[in-house]
Design a protein that fits this description.
alpha/beta; 10 helices; about 15% strand; two-stranded antiparallel sheet; Rossmann fold; globular; seven-stranded mixed β-sheet
Length: about 325
């Protein structure tokens, strides 16, 4: 059966104003620290700036996977490869894309979340991949900021004093999971090292890469606190990107050390506005070979477009 998705009209995007994330479809089952929902309109713009629809989009630091999911749902690439090293996050992707999406959705809907049941669930040793996936969703939705790394505390007050129920929307989370199953034919998941996967596909001209590494360059601590696997060789990552045959878009902390790295490897950088989890306005860097599609002070708008799951790229 042909599936039809309606691409929402992109809000007007101005370089000096953060994207309104409420206008972006929420696809991920995770509440993910450092998530890129705010980048989705610009990601679309990048993908449509490419000369042809990529055969493969690789997201080597997938995390919550909002960029890869957007590409799969909106048919911006023939195939999407999500890569994540973290065992907890990997269990969720493996469960959803491995035939157990409906089981996980039902488990979430049936779970009576309260402080006692949450504590009991999180103290268990999971006996299967899908049980670990369910535990991970509970942990992600009940800990501060969705942080899965050791040391994150459970919500006490949360939003409007709702405590651990602040981010627990079982019907919504379940629907996102079953919706992902609808586009599973265009999604692959690999648990492994991002550097190995980038190197594996670096000679593929038909592959493009969205790269969002932990922000630990220049001694930044946030990545170390938010993610289980946070220490990476940033210089090596930039060298790998320089060797890619296909195009890439990288996001990074807007720091002098990162700009210096980009300049050393002859990449362009542009700062874009966003809001963090505390709604404070800040900026992050886009890094790539050619960022002309990010217009300085420009305004972008795209009209709604119907995209068929088995169709070619919609006209630009």
């Amino acid at each position: 059966m042909t599936q039809t998705f309606l691409l929402p009209e992109l809000e007007i995007i101005e370089r000096d104003k953060p994207v309104n994330v409420a206008s972006v479809p929420q696809r991920s089952p995770f509440r993910y620290p450092g998530g890129k929902t705010w980048l989705v309109p610009l990601f679309r713009r990048w993908m449509f700036s490419l000369p042809s629809e990529p055969k493969l989009l690789v997201e080597p630091f997938a995390g919550g996977g909002i960029i890869g999911l957007t590409a799969a749902f909106e048919h911006l690439a023939d195939e999407v490869l999500l890569v994540e090293m973290d065992r907890q996050i990997a269990s969720v992707w493996k469960t959803i894309l491995g035939g157990n999406a409906k089981w996980l959705a039902r488990r979430i809907i049936d779970f009576d979340l309260n402080p006692d049941t949450a504590k009991s669930e999180l103290s268990k040793t999971p006996k299967s991949e899908r049980e670990l996936a369910f535990q991970t969703i509970v942990k992600n939705r009940t800990q501060h900021g969705g942080i899965l790394a050791d040391g994150a505390g459970v919500l006490k007050y949360g939003e409007n004093g709702k405590g651990i129920l602040s981010r627990w929307y079982p019907q919504t989370i379940a629907k996102r999971i079953t919706n992902i199953e609808l586009v599973a034919a265009r999604l692959r998941f690999a648990q492994g090292d991002a550097f190995d996967v980038i190197a594996e596909h670096r000679k593929n001209r038909d592959a493009v890469f969205f790269i969002d590494p932990p922000y630990t360059a220049g001694g930044k601590r946030a990545g170390s606190r938010l993610y289980t696997h946070s220490e990476i060789d940033h210089e090596h990552l930039f060298r790998l990107c320089e060797s890619l045959r296909g195009d890439f878009l990288m996001t990074y902390d807007n720091a002098d050390e990162v700009r210096t790295l980009a300049e050393r490897h002859r990449f362009e950088t542009k700062a874009v506005p966003m809001k963090n989890t505390h709604h404070a306005e800040m900026s992050e860097l886009l890094i790539g070979r050619n960022l002309d599609w990010v217009q300085d002070g420009g305004i972008f708008r795209e009209e709604p477009t119907h995209v068929h799951a088995n169709s070619s790229r919609p006209a630009r």
